[in-house]
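Blinded run. Sample ID left blank on purpose so nobody reads anything into the name before looking at the predicted structure. Input follows.
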Amino acid sequence: MAFVVKMSLVALMFFMVTSAPYAVDGAVTCQTVVTSLTPCATYLTRGGPVPPSCCSGINSLYRAATTITDRQTACRCMEQAAGMVPGINLNAASSLPGKCGVNIPYKISPTTDCSKYLLFTCAT
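Blinded prediction complete.
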């Protein structure tokens, strides 16, 4: 199972890096999102406690997403990732930002319309 998760992440990272970037003017790219969220993969597929490195990545992404473009890019990349990682628990994905002290105004899901979301707020 760990091999499948790692291979899925490698495939996801390849897709994100080689696909057209959403952020033309912003600092956040899909590669930034994948790098930040990779420590969360085990939690998202197997459950258990949220690793501190996962929350560190989420908070790092939160701090990097300072513009509307950045926020929408992060949303789109998470939306793509949610649909590409086999065995991902979408409920765990949706609750993860809150567990790490970050509130985002949308549900992490393959069907999220990221064009509607502009703000992130910190829960702490």
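Unblinding after everyone has recorded impressions. Residues 2-24, 120-124 have pLDDT under 50 and may be disordered.
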